[in-house]
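Entry 12.
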Amino acid sequence: MFAYPLDEMVGGILYEHSHRMIASIVGLLTVVLAIWLWRREERRWVRNLGFIAVAAVIAQGILGGLTVRFLLPTPVSVSHATLAQTFLAIMTAIALVTSPWWRDRSTLIPELPASRRSLGLFSATVAALFIQLILGALMRHTESGLAVPDFPLAYGQLFPSLTPEAMADYNRQLLQSDIRIAADGAITSAQVVIHLTHRLWALVTGFLIIWASIRLLRLSDVSRRISRMAYVLLGLLLLQITLGGLTVLSQKAVDITTAHVATGALLLATTVLSMLHIVRISGLRFSPLPVMAAPKGATT
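Predicted 3D structure (tokens):
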């Protein structure tokens, strides 16, 4: 791993092996974090979050290895991408719940109106974002990213035909525009469906993010901290839509596509943070997490 000769890290090897080395460092830091929480954190559920993070990063390493060993099988690759987002959400939660703001009891507002409905809305938004991220990973790993080469329409239509004749015409268009070459093989109707599902689910996700942001803005009198997060969510949503369109129109330019994936992760993290802020200021409790024995001298 870390003994790989630096002069051989060229081309794609540079990106692949750098990814592995950074992942190793993340794994080590996660273990250190879990040990620190176990020794110093008095809240049992926070300590358990640390161990869940370690389990997630171990599973992520295993999935990464399987992805390479079995030459990028779609189910494993998609699971690898999805677990990465899950790990990010866990680490985001740990960062917030160990912060001074979370521990400050003056932030509690038990009479916060419609707090449970707000929590339900944010839970739905987080779930929708996870589904969208899974669809994005599925699109990448099935090479469906340019199965539809125009935006916002699809082959000049809202809902393109998937008949054999239409698919043959789409493949001719892709060859003539140099988006694909003959060696790539023909795109299939399944690839078109995967691509369009990612786009259509983005509408559902976007609607929920806007709704959740409006709910946050209504709390501006209660907490400016929370209302500011609404603007962050809306800004990230606008950026993500723009990057999604540019990803297609640029024929998946590496920098734009990478920014699109990264912004999706930021949207997830910000939504999780927003949901946890609602939980905290309203005094709502988490459902119990699995209990592990506390070390000597620790309290719960």
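Annotation: The chain has two domains: 1-98, 109-287. Confidence is low (pLDDT under 50) at residues 286-300.
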